[in-house]
Amino acid sequence: MSRQAPTLEDVAREAGVSRATVSRVVNGVRNVDPGIQDLVRRAIERTGYTPNQAARQLVTRRTTTVALVVSGAGDSSDTEQNAFATRVFADPFFGRVVGGVVGRLRPRGMHPVLMFAETPESRQEVVSYLRQGGADGALVVSTHHDDPLPALLADARLPAVLFARPGRPVPLSYVDLAHREGGRLAAEHLLARGCRRIATVTGPLAVAASQERLAGFRDTLARHGDPYVPVAEGGFTVDSGMSAMASLLAQHPDVDGVFTANDLMAQGAIQVLRDQGRRVPRDVAVVGFDDSSVAVTCRPRLTTVRQPVEEMASTMASLLDDHIAGRRTDATSVIFDPELVVRDSA
């Protein structure tokens, strides 16, 4: 005969408190003395009690699930949707976002559900999923400046926090980086190394972060008397970095310093420089952006502008938890500072 599952009454007896007190602790009611909370939690561990999630949701009106949405701009074809997902999983940036989100949510008993929203239909699916109670709120990583999803979530009054300032102002909280400052750090480092014929590989210029990094880089060089910076647009991928670097070398063969708007493109740029007999950093210095895993596996190891993605994602998740719980009602922004990490490429 199987042993009956532990109940609230079993936990109450073990802890020496009332059933109502155990219920308040299990359901996250915040006016319970911390000492009693610890007593109840230890009793739960000893008895092996597992809360009934369905019943708990009826009481708290929370699912303990949040949607982690990667949103972009594409068409409705299966090929395009598959390509979008492939690009996401190939970029170490998104893995760092997931790590930061999970690290913050897991200790709070919350879990992310990954969703893609690269078409009008899939964006509406996200809104409907949240409206129907599939998740308590959304963490949105947008890959396009004109992404309509933030406005849809704001109009529906759904709890949501964004990674990066939205292209169109909406009353939603967000975390972001001082991207112009990152561009400035890269420019000043290349100048300090003695580089004088400096170029840059940008990210997609439809992305606000790419525009900001380029603006900070250009402005700094202009302040040092360099009014013209050769530019090639990339797509945040190794292949696009290779294509952009090849284009720059064809038009400006005397280039001696390059700033790429992410580490993957820097890896591609270094490959092209190597193939064309240019030594890094002796002939051409290269600075990346992000300080991802690529920066330390690349040869030579990348000098790069660090974006604290894990900390930013963790803060994003914390803000969402505050909005869901009602501890925060107004939208807020948290801006992080970049940091130059000097290694071997520049």
Automatic annotation (TrEMBL):
Annotated protein name in UniProt: LacI family DNA-binding transcriptional regulator
UniProt key word DNA-binding: yes
Pfam families tied to this protein: LacI, Peripla_BP_3
Regions that span the bilayer: none
Superkingdom in the source lineage: Bacteria
Record-annotated HTH lacI-type domain positions: 6-60
Keywords: DNA-binding, Transcription, Transcription regulation
Domain HTH cro/C1-type, chain residue ranges per copy: 7-33
Gene3D superfamilies: 3.40.50.2300, lambda repressor-like DNA-binding domains
Single Gene Ontology MF annotation: DNA binding
